[in-house]
Amino acid sequence: MNQEKTFPEVQAGGSGDNGGAPPRKQFVAFDFDGTVIDTNKLIVDSWQHTFLKFHGYRHSEQEIYGTFGETLYDSMKDFFHEKADEAIACYREYQKDSWRESVRVFPGITGLLQELENQGRTLLLVTSRLKPTTMEYLEHFDLKRFFKVVITSNDTKAHKPDPEPVMMALAKAGGRPEESVMVGDTRFDVGCANNAGVVSVLVNWSHPVDEKDFQTPEFRPDFRIGKPEDLLRLI
Hints:
About 40% of the residues lie in helices and about 15% in strands. It is globular and about 50 Å long. Helix 3 (about 70-80) crosses helix 4 (about 85-100). The two termini are about 25 Å apart. It is built from 9 helices and 9 strands. The chain has a 7-stranded parallel β-sheet, with helices on both faces. A two-stranded antiparallel sheet has the order 3-4. Strand 7, helix 8 and strand 8 form a beta-alpha-beta unit. The longest helix has 19 residues, at about 85-100. One of its GO terms (molecular function) is phosphoglycolate phosphatase activity.
């Protein structure tokens, strides 16, 4: 487990300055679901559809939010055990037929990506989603053009919060941890960044989080931001 970093955990924005911000970062890694695109309703509905089929009742949304950022297989094993593969098939079949109706890009994200590109930053996508749907969503929303490297759960043996996903992205892009920042909405994103020695930024525009998940040094974000444009003042 990493030692707690020297950067203070702050809310970026609001004061109009970036006091306490790290030096300019060339490489900016983004999580996908819950950070770039809003799949929250799709994911919650897919879980509830699967719970109803296998358990006969719905679970709390907070339980579902607790799985965000983890690979689907790991989450499904926790709930469905030996029936995890069947549950995953049910979940994915539901998503295949309904994602276009509910998925959207978070407001301000496309403008943020464009501005970072205009500044000459190198943008990376690091997600626990499978590659086929990641690429399908990127192309559907015309976002693929912004990212020099895309790392999905198909590309690594270890997954967030292990550092391998972001380290692989940096290796492919020619970057180093000290030149980088990672932006995400879950403890898995924060842990991945912290374990890699990358500045971690937790976003607050996605879904409710349980503060208990962010109390240990491994999962404590260096910064929090409330709006996409806050990142521009921070880095």
